[in-house]
Amino acid sequence: MKMLLKSFALLSAVLATACVSILPEAAPAKPRFHIAAADGDALAGEPLAFSLVVDDPRATRVYDSVRIAVSAAPGRIEYLPGAEWADRAPRLFQTAMVQTFEDAGRILAVGDRVAIPVADLVLQTDIRRLEVDVEGADAAVVSVYARLSNGKGTVYAARKFDARVSAASTKPDAVYSAFEMAFDQVITEIVAWTFDAGADARANV
């Protein structure tokens, strides 16, 4: 009986080892990248007497995704295989802008349409490019067209913001480092422009 139990235990151990050995190893998870707010302290100043809705950014399906777009040739988009955004890129961009406005502390009421359904001014953005450009020198490219309106059809100001930051390579960490600088530049410029254009718009109402 003891010999039978020992044989059964040995067979069980062998089978368990065999089961473990034939299972494929899990692939390491892709790094997921976030879009950080710009330095709000650098944008601080006198309080402004208007409320602001930061509308959902518009983007084509090429960029409205967790995948990181790569421009390999004119009109040709691929996607970075080794990393992805932590959420849809336009959503991350919107959140980063709202946080930058909040950190600057010049507008008491600022947020998306869920947080602030009605406001004095509306910031609308169209994401035209958000990609790694690998034609020639590798670079992170961010291009955003912004409009400041009353949300009812009257546009007070509009402008395009562009940033192109060289990347050391197309490896995920190098790409993200370049995107960080590109987004910081674009978000800082959009927020500063909105403060100025918004103050002018309200003064002329």
Counting DSSP E segments of at least 2 residues, the number of strands comes to 8
What fraction of residues sit in β-strands?
Answer: 25-35%
In the CATH hierarchy, what is the superfamily? ABC-type transport auxiliary lipoprotein component
**What is the CATH C level class, in words?**
Alpha Beta
Q: Structural class, from helix and strand content?
A: alpha/beta
- Multimeric state: single chain
Task: Please tally the helical runs, counting DSSP H or I stretches of 4 or more residues.
Answer: 3
Report the biggest beta sheet as strand number plus sense, adding barrel if it closes: 8 strands, mixed
Question: Would you kindly provide a written description of the structure presented here, covering whatever features stand out?
Answer:
There is one protein chain. Helices cover 34% and strands 29% of the residues. The chain has 205 residues and is an alpha/beta fold. It has a single domain, classed as ABC-type transport auxiliary lipoprotein component (Rossmann fold). Strands 1, 2, 3, 4, 5, 6, 7 and 8 form an eight-stranded mixed beta sheet that branches. Helix 2 packs across helix 3. The longest helix is centred in the C-terminal third of the chain and has 32 residues. It is elongated, with a radius of gyration of 25 Å. The N terminus is likely disordered.
